[in-house]
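tool_call: predict_structure(chain=1)
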Amino acid sequence: MQLHTLGTSDLKISPILMGTWQAGKEMWVGIDDVQSTRAIQAAFEAGITTFDTAAAYGKGHSERILGAALAGVRTDVILATKVFANRLQFNQVIDSCHQSLKNLKTDYIDLYQIHWPAGAFGTRTVPIEETLAAMNELKEQAKIRAIGVSNFSCAQLEEAARYARIDSIQSPYSLFWRQIERDVMSYCRQNKVSILAYSPMAQGLLTGKFTHNHKFEKGDHRIKNRLFKPENFRRAQKALDGLRPIAEKNAASLGQLALAWVMSHAGTCAIAGARNADQVLQNARAADLVLSANDLARMDVIGRCVTNYLDENPVMWGF
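tool_result:
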């Protein structure tokens, strides 16, 4: 895979990152540690060199699985993790980073990110300058190599950039979820901030594997995903019918088509989760899929059949 520069840093990341929320098990069902480990290692073997996790994924379980799986190839991969919104005071950031270093079995984190802005989900409001002062200190100590944010609005991103060099933002972005196109995307292009798009396949909806009568098991957080609400789900199914001929023409799966669409946007990489090695290999093949201008334009129109009916709320879930 052709590597991309992360922001203005010296980090080179793969266009597809492996997301490991599911490896944490919490808020997912049917996840097996052995399969998670095999999936992570299969990703590396397929050319995916960048892996994203967070302290909040299973209370560090995802970090521990990831660290163990990649222990033998640490210098050949980029590890990204996050500090949650309830740990954004100066000393909390320092302590959380040290715990993540331990979990990941490493002495440095390539990309350290603020998972959600302070105040999210009822957490304490902490001035962004305090949080970033801690991250700047960690960077000076070479415990982290780059700083990123996640789930920030454009205004929040601009404010953060006053106190630290922000090299990336993680935002939900897919054919079915496109709020960042309003202002975040243009800001990032102007300021050389990489976009790491999470849920690029709309948590599986864009793969076409969910039928109208699908029922998620108890404990699966997708029950609360607003795209799976009946009215949005019906529109998504109609949109998928329009996407299938484009996928067939390109000898691609719907999921690969969705990933390729995200990666077609300048400065944007896709974070793709997988619960087993087979899913990883399917995702990796999307890096070689180049869509024509006509296909991209048609997909844009089809996607808006879903996004035009969504409200301004940038959070995908009704937690």
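agent: The beta strands are 4-5, 12-13, 16-19, 50-52, 78-83, 109-114, 144-150, 166-172, 194-198, 268-273. Proceeding to next step.
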